[in-house]
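Structure in, sequence out. Go:
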């Protein structure tokens, strides 16, 4: 068996600085594998064809080389950056491509940044020992330029753009997302079955519905669905050719949305726990700074369960990542409030760059150049607190329920 690194490790990658990092892959059992980077060297033995080495924290750097060797085989990766790594997780809003932004023509001209890199986890919907659907080729890490940026997550790019201008260190973005997905797609069966209501609504109902489905029946439904999608894409292509100046929002209004949902079955990427294995599990040991989570629309039909589902996602990912990695939850409501006040003319379009470290309200004033900007941020702050305070209390109660009596007493004494 040949020595290999996991697919996410390629030349041009970004590794997280300031904390332990994992380098992992596969190879021949019982062989010794040694890695060297930034003057550090570590060795381990390959067990059951898998190996993992954890290195002490690396320093920020703009040009490193990783050497992996068994003595018989050697892999060398170059042009490596050491900086901050963010996981872009969720569904279509964070998957939304830069090329579909209204500002694409303006920002594309000035987007080149050799210290901003992007990796897209292949969106494998189903795989077993014999097949992989779809048969996507790993593209590796991409340097941001006016061509590669087209397939970047738009939210990811603008996040990195402002971070790069504020703190000036290399940024790596890892896209682990797929449109139309529920939070239940991104956690394993154990976590799906921890909560009885979530187990019933998300897991049991889905698999009971396809219990007697044959593979031939599923393949037939998939073929019908693919034909509907093909016809839709042809309409989209014709529309874009006819109206090249119109944006994606206008296209959706005129042509409609992608046919949805697809047929249920074991090959359906929306199946519970599906993408957890085909996407997230493949990169979960990669060290990073934070997860940017933008998801929830697909779970609106079960909104009363979402705070519990999201809590399970966070717990499951942190367990697999072996780190208390921060989850930054994107709040669409606050965005729409700001858009509303912009459209009615209460605040102008953002016209200034302001460091992200500036406190709320003050930053609103500086962003817009008006007191009204601060007022809108104050409104968002009040609404956010009203919405999320109950979830914080629930999370606190869940943590308290897990604690022993001794731990509870210690916590009270600390306060």
């Amino acid at each position: 068996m040949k020595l290999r690194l996991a697919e996410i490790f390629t030349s041009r990658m970004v590794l997280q600085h300031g904390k332990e990092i994992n380098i992992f892959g596969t190879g021949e059992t019982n062989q010794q594998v040694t890695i060297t980077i930034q003057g550090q060297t570590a060795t381990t033995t390959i067990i059951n064809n898998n190996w993992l080495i954890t290195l002490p924290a690396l320093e920020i750097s703009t040009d490193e080389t990783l050497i992996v060797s068994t003595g018989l085989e050697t892999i060398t990766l170059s042009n490596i950056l050491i900086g901050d790594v963010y996981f872009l997780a969720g569904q279509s809003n964070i998957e939304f491509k830069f090329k579909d932004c209204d500002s694409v023509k303006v920002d594309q001209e000035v987007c080149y940044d050799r210290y901003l890199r992007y990796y897209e986890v292949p969106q494998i919907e189903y795989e077993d020992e014999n097949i992989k659907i779809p048969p996507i080729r790993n593209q590796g890490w991409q340097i941001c330029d006016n061509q590669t940026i087209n397939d970047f997550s738009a939210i990811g790019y603008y996040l990195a753009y402002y971070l790069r201008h504020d703190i000036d260190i290399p940024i790596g973005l890892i896209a682990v997302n797929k449109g139309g997905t529920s939070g239940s797609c991104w956690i394993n069966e154990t976590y799906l079955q921890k909560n009885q209501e979530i187990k019933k609504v998300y897991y049991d109902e889905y698999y009971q519905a396809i219990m007697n489905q044959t593979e031939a029946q599923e393949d037939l439904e998939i073929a019908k669905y693919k034909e509907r999608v093909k016809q839709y894409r042809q309409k989209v292509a014709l529309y874009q050719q006819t109206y090249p100046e119109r944006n994606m929002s206008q296209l959706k209004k005129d042509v409609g949305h992608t046919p949805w949902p697809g047929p249920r079955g074991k090959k359906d990427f929306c199946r519970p726990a599906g993408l957890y294995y085909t996407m997230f599990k493949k990169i979960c040991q990669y060290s990073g700074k934070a997860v940017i989570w933008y998801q929830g629309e697909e779970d609106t039909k079960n909104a009363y369960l979402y705070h519990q589902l999201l809590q399970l996602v966070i717990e499951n990912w942190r367990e697999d990542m072996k780190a208390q990695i921060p989850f930054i939850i994107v709040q669409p409501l606050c965005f729409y409030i700001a858009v509303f006040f912009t459209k009615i003319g209460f605040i102008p379009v953002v016209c200034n760059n302001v460091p992200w470290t500036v406190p709320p309200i003050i930053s609103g004033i500086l962003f817009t150049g008006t007191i009204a900007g601060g007022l809108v941020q104050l409104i968002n702050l009040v609404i956010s607190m009203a919405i999320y305070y109950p979830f914080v209390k629930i999370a606190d109660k869940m943590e308290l329920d897990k604690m022993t009596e001794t731990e509870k007493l210690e916590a009270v004494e600390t306060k």
